[in-house]
Request: fold
Amino acid sequence: MDRRFVLASLVVLAACGGKQEAKTPASDAKEEEHESIGDVAAAQGGIAALGGAGNREQGTGTEVAFAGPLRLETLSKKNPPKLDGVPKEWHARAAAKEKIEGKTDDLGLDVAVQASDDTLWLAAEIADPSLKRSKSYADGEDHVRVVLAFPAGRGVLKAYEIGFWPGVPGSSPGAVKWISGPNAGQKVTGAKLVENDVKGGVTFEATVPWSSFAEAASTRVGLRATFRYHDDGGGVLATGPGGADKPNELLALPIAAEAAVVEGLLQQKGLAGTKPSIDIYADVAGDDRKERISVFGSFITICGPGYRGGKQFFWRELVGEIVTLETGAIVLGRPKEEVVLRRRVTQGQAVHELLELWSIPQGKEEPDSVFAHQVMVISSDGKKKVTNAVHLGAKQIEVTTEPATGWDAGSFKEPLAGNGVEPILLPWGAVKSKTFKIENGKVASATEVPQTPAAAPSTATASATLPKDVPTPAVTKPSDNSKAVMDAYMRDANVAAGTKPKFDLGVNVDGDATPERVALFGRDLVVLGPGFKGGSGYARLTLTQFNEDKDVGELTARDLDGDGAAELIVRGERHVKVEAQTVEIDALFVYQVKGGNIARVFSIETGREVSGKRVQGLVQFVPAKKGKGFDIDVRPGTAKGWTKESYPWPQDKPGSGAAIEPLLLPWGGVANVRYAWNGTQFAPAQ
Reply:
């Protein structure tokens, strides 16, 4: 009997100054119901050898919900605040509502935080009818304290505490000092504070260099904080619990990308206040800073300051329970780390465990599943078990059989994986172990060590109905085979000899399987190649929607329609004059090359900004519901500085025939639009 078994990813959407160290060890993880193959392999130098098992996460008990009253906004490069002590141009404040000690009835503190690449900015509005300030900046005088904690290892947070003393205008300047640690009492190097007296209190703006915190060089996600006002009378008012001595109790201080996870996914799924069951910080994509990889039930998310522009995020919903994640630059030999994911699926009377290796290739936004293998089958009562040990090494993966418990060749009837997922090796089967060679980010070959199979063959079947990502043609460095044609383009377009293109790809986009060369000179998109137009011509399209060459921010390639040839994906910024102001519009454009011509097949606005106020949408490529390729999933994202009442434009209707599909607004009443390939373009799915 053919027992069909879903194992692979069901993709619903694929979308230094002084220091105060406070380390909090993780609580002991709860024992799993069934023994894990990872535990078996760890004892033999198997999968847990990845990173010395140091970044293997099953949850530490120290996780915190992304959502909360605090927010770390991204500083607008075009409209940075003026450090004058008057925070009128800042975003919405977070109020200190928690009484820590003493009398606080007549006190108030509201704070806002934002950051640039090198500086942390703080604005505070203090209500205190009787301020006490002097040049001594004593602990007993009125001041604000900030505790900021960074992830610093498995279940460990490193906390810093800094004090901000507003000065007396015209008499003494304000001060920013370390509260504790080796530099306690000393001023924070490079920090600035400007105060402004107001009726019933004082306001101030302050800056602190990120270099004050060692961890900030690599980590800007997973931050936690509290902001406290210390009154000279002994009252202490805070934005939340925790402190330098209790960093695990601190609330999240999410950056824009983390806030997008809340507003773009968790709120819609009823998970806004849920703590992630697994949280990992690793450099898997983008710049050298770490991304945050989190698990919420069946959802996995990736976000970070240098990933997807620091404004958007990636997520998938997987079948089964995600039990562990690991990261490490082990198998592929890339500078970025890979993600090893294990999840369990219940099928009938047994639990099946799947191991997957994910990697985000350079120039791409979504992870590829490089390798997937069924590694455990265990009966629901835990008495019967078949496992494989897995060892991840440089450019290879070794899978080995282990002795079975409770099953033999005659009694094992469980289904095996297939359709791109390697089935579990059975101890009574003909293969004792397999070694998979990995080249160019893919499984290139496999060698087997045979063994004598048992007399009674298993009746398990190798079959699956598993949606898989459509492989995009390899994107490589272009060759110089069409140099003469490129020279002809440069002469025709008056491009100076020796000019290097901003982007230069080698990828199959048209005709036979021979890769074409795709280059961007200024705003000119140019396609040529030995198999393109007989090797003697080129196609050229000027991206006139952009005002200047620098407005084109990204060119990538991906097979979106499933025909085996890649489409070209362009992201950039448009500058549109509306009355007396300039509207900055982020947009995505998809181009298809057919019959020697370049044509736009989709475009959408992904973000809009005016004078520091911004709305950011969410756009992801997801496996198509019908046929091959991908659909384009679009959802509302986040807003900064605008509300439903103050936003000056209405929600435009998707699919109305406009040249560019509209940005979805958080208050626009459109929860989701899915665009599917209709044979000629991407249009709203029916």
In short: Residues 256-266 form the longest helix (11 residues).
